[in-house]
Amino acid sequence: MERVICLAIGYVFGLFQTGYLYSKAHHMDIRNYGSGNSGSTNVLRVMGVKAGLIVFLGDFSKTILACLVARKLFAAQPEMMYVYLLYTGFGVILGHNFPFYMGFKGGKGIAASAGLLAATDWRVMLVCLIVFVAVVAITRYVSLGSILVMILFFAGMVFFGSQGDYGLSAAALPEFYGIAAVIALMGIWKHRSNIGRLLNGTENKLGAKKE
What we know:
Blueprint: H1 2-14, H2 18-25, H3 40-47, H4 49-73, H5 81-97, H6 110-120, H7 122-139, H8 142-162, H9 173-189, H10 192-200
Helix pairs in contact: 1-4, 1-5, 3-4, 4-5, 4-6, 5-6, 5-9, 7-8, 8-9
């Protein structure tokens, strides 16, 4: 039941579609421009740096807020807290990626995943941030940086989880690794079209001319 509650809390927070709401406030629907995605990268490409940053921070913050609610609700179960945080974060990502009121067409969940990193482990977040910035600066492929972040997220959860940093019991670790893997795979799966373009050399680069 705790897991269902965490997923539900996360999904409700995830329904706050910052990109869609921001674009509508500016008399447009971001889904009709660029890649058709409502996430921060498409907003950045179509509406500029300021808009992209605002949308990123909005999607980033909603995961942190959802996780704060989960921490408050399940404070009496510290031995399972990080499992519940991952379920909550996954719920946010599901709400962000598949909002029911937008025909289940949302973003790709990277900003929301970044918020989950901030809510769970600053060390993993720092490594992911450095790698993301370096990869995007060198290649100008935001998608490549995002994919690598999801891989590093899973690796970080496994490494620090195995070191006992999250206070999880041995029985809880397989579930913790499992939900971390699902989150990482979701992020990579949402970039499947980008992966195809990366392999074909046709992926859009950051700073490329707007369509």
